[in-house]
Amino acid sequence: MTHTQTNAQLDGKRLGWIILAVLVLGAVIGAGAGLLTLLLYGVEHVMLGYIEGSELPGPFGVPAIRRAISVTLGMTVAGVIWYLLRHKTAKVPSVKKAVAGERMPVWQTVLHVVLQIFIVGSGASIGREVAPRELGAMLAQRFCNLLHIEGDSGIDRRMVVAVAAGAGLGGVYNAPLAGMFFAVEILLVDVTIEKVAFGLGMSAVAAFVAASIKGHHTFYDITAMQPSSTPTLMLFALLCGAACGAVGALFRKGSSWAEAHKPSGRAILWQMPLAGLVTGLVAVFVPQVMGNGRAAAQLGFSTFIPEVAGTSGAVQSPASAAASPWTLLSGGSGVVADSAVAGGASADASGTVAASGASVTGTGAGSWLDFGSGLAPNAGTVLTLSHVGMILAVLALTFVAKALITLMTIRSGASGGVLQPGIALGSTLGAMLGLVWMFAFPADSVTACALIGAAALLSASQQAPLMAMCLVMELTEAPITFFVPVGLAVASSALVSKWVLDGMKRRETTGHPVQ
Fold first, then answer.
1. Which PANTHER family does the UniProt entry name for this protein (predicted)?
2. DSSP of 440-509, one letter per residue?
3. DSSP at 480
4. I want to staple 304 with a disulfide (CB 3.0 to 4.6 A). Which of 153, 224, 381, 438 is the partner?
5. Confidence of residue 29 (pLDDT cuts 50, 70, 90)
6. Mean pLDDT throughout 134-157?
């Protein structure tokens, strides 16, 4: 047999292993991702009495006392189990260590993954995207062991584990592009045609299978956005990207510090319950701080000012108005009728808003965000220019609370991710900047600004611009034309964050650590 024939056989065998892994491992990981999502819904239903979705992005209607009890109890139970898991049995390595070859034990990994979903469903402020990635990495190691896939005669185990971890992300969020870029941009740090095709194929299969189990819906509602980009939005993207780059770098630094200072002993037994209690107390007044960040991010995406919407061409549908966190925070019931809520809306004393034939009726019950007191619109109504100051204050409070509570949760010993919290911070920061920008350039909607901010801050906090851009665009199902301003913002953010992080590193290495 000639050398050429031998190489051809090896190449054919390698291609066969890749196809098998894409179909079989991708399907198994997709099933796992779908089941983890259903588990999240089940925990939310039991602990908080609601299930998150497009119509209810957060626990806004859950009684405050139940919110506090749920997250405190969830963090307490998880703290005890994690203590036993980390000190009485084989430890579960990180995904990066698993890619490097460290073995992930089976039942310990499964329990570790379930605990992450459990605390998020209970209301803990931390991302849930690490769980499906760890599950995917563990399944990939077993897949390689079972079929003896290794070395020159098969496919690289390191590549299989990395791609499988990315497929877990792609499956749970129906984001195959983000899953592929997570594998090649963050884990492998190496882009080749084979790795891209392998990663995209497995993530696509995982996303398809997961969606067939958990169903498909748009994760974030950005329908209150202008129909197309503008030259001024491009300028905003450049400036917002720079601001989000600096903030994202600080958030990355903070999360790294929190991760490095997790309790190593029995301190987790009181620190995690304490973190849960603090989260619960904050959630009494800021319910959108709970969970992985969906509610806080949607607050930014749903910031819609009808009085200037006509200039930008943005329109908020009745369904979007009903599900808006602003409506839910103000005590609105979300009863909506007729057509879209757009510019020129007016509210009467009963709390009903009419705009282009539409109405949004609140319960009148009110809340801490009492629009009737002059601090914000009447319960269930749309936002107005006269309340911009209060809108900015609520967004700023949400931003600060989400950042601090997430870092506290990680520091207390909880395991989880910061992808969705990063999107939440970017969305609220982008919305704040967009509200100010709107006065000078009303053709740019606040929702578009929030979209740009979400991608830009995530890019900085993850140091992965391609993954960040694709994940946000896939989660929002944004029009493809917005890849242009989002791409510019992500590029600006990546450069600024790199400069900020390099500066911090230089200060630390020269004996002047950043406090």
1. CHLORIDE CHANNEL PROTEIN CLC-E
2. H-TTS-HHHHHHHHHHHHHHHHHT-HHHHHHHHHHHHT--GGGHHHHHHHHHHHHHHHHHHHHHHHHHHH
3. G
4. 224
5. very high
6. 82
Tokens at 149, concatenated = 């896939």
Q: Specify the pairing of strand 332-337 against strand 346-347.
A: unpaired
CA dihedral 214, 59, 111, 160 (to 10 degrees): 50
Cα 294 from Cα 288, distance rounded (Å): 8
CATH class, range 1-214: mainly alpha
Residues 377-400 have a mean pLDDT of: 79
Judge contact between 218 and 477, C-beta under 8 A: yes
Residue 406's CB is within 10 A of a number of other CB atoms, namely 32
Instruction: Report the DSSP beta bridge partners of residue 336.
Output: 360
How is residue 183 written in tokens?
């594998």
* Three-class HEC string of 357-405: CEEEEECCCCCCCCHHHCCCCCCCCCCCHHHHHHHHHHHHHHHHHHHHH
User: What distance in Å separates the CA atoms of residue 108 and residue 77, rounded to the nearest whole number?
Assistant: 16
Report the pLDDT value the prediction gives residue 344, as an integer from 0 to 100.
40
Q: Are 379 and 363 in contact (CB under 8 A)?
A: yes
* DSSP label at residue 92: P
Read off the pLDDT band of 511 (50, 70, 90): low
Gap between the Cα atoms of 171 and 187, Å rounded:
17
Sole residue written with tokens 């998880």? 78
Structural contact between residues 166 and 196, judged by C-beta atoms closer than 8 angstroms: no
Question: In the CATH hierarchy, which fold is given to the domain comprising 231-332+383-511?
Answer: Clc chloride channel (1.10.3080)
Residue 351's pLDDT is what? Answer: 35
Residue 411: band (very low, low, confident or very high) from pLDDT cuts 50, 70, 90: very high
- Give residue 336's pLDDT: 34
pLDDT tops 50 at residue 381:
no
Residue pair 306/314 in contact by the 8 Å Cβ criterion: no
Residue 2 pLDDT more than 60? no
Distance CA 402, CA 18 (A): 41
Residue 165 to residue 183: CA distance in whole angstroms:
7
List the domain boundaries for the chain: 1-214, 231-332+383-511
